[in-house]
Design a protein that fits this description.
globular; 118 residues; seven-stranded mixed sheet; mainly beta
Length: 118
C-alpha cells in the first residue's frame, strides 16, 4: 500500500520560514518524480515544485528563489524548504508522486496546512 504523509505545516509570520517533509512508503522514490502542490479554497490545486528521479528540479515562478525541494537523507523522504513566506503562500500543501516517465500524479498525501500571517 502506497502512503505519502506530510508534516511541518504551521502558522508563521510574514517573512518566516518553514520546512515541509513528506515520508513515503510502498514506492521506490528513485523511480518516481515527487512534487509539492498547494491549494486554497475555491482554487485549483497548483504545482509548487517537483524533483525527478534524477534530481532535476522545477519550480513555479511564484516560489522561485524562495522554496527549495530536495530528497532527504532517508531515501523515502522529500522536503520543501520554504523561506521568506508571504501571506499568499497560505494554503494546504500536498505531497504527490508519479512514476516516470508518466505524466499523471498518481499518489497523494492528505495535506498539511501552512498559514502565513501578515
Amino acid at each position: 500500500q502506497v502512503q505519502l504523509v506530510e508534516s511541518g505545516g504551521d502558522l508563521v509570520q510574514f517573512g518566516g520560514d518553514l520546512r515541509l517533509s513528506c515520508i513515503t512508503s510502498g514506492i521506490g522514490t528513485s523511480f518516481y518524480a515527487m512534487g509539492w502542490y498547494r491549494q486554497t479554497p475555491g482554487k485549483q490545486r497548483e504545482l509548487v515544485a517537483s524533483i525527478s528521479g534524477r534530481q532535476s528540479t522545477e519550480y513555479a515562478d511564484f516560489v522561485k528563489g524562495r522554496f527549495t525541494i530536495s530528497r532527504g537523507n532517508a531515501k523515502n523522504t522529500i522536503n520543501l524548504e520554504m523561506n521568506n513566506l508571504h501571506p499568499e503562500d497560505t494554503a494546504v500543501y500536498y505531497c504527490a508522486a508519479k512514476a516516470e516517465p508518466f505524466d499523471t500524479w498518481k499518489y497523494w498525501g492528505q495535506g498539511t496546512q501552512v498559514t502565513v500571517a501578515s
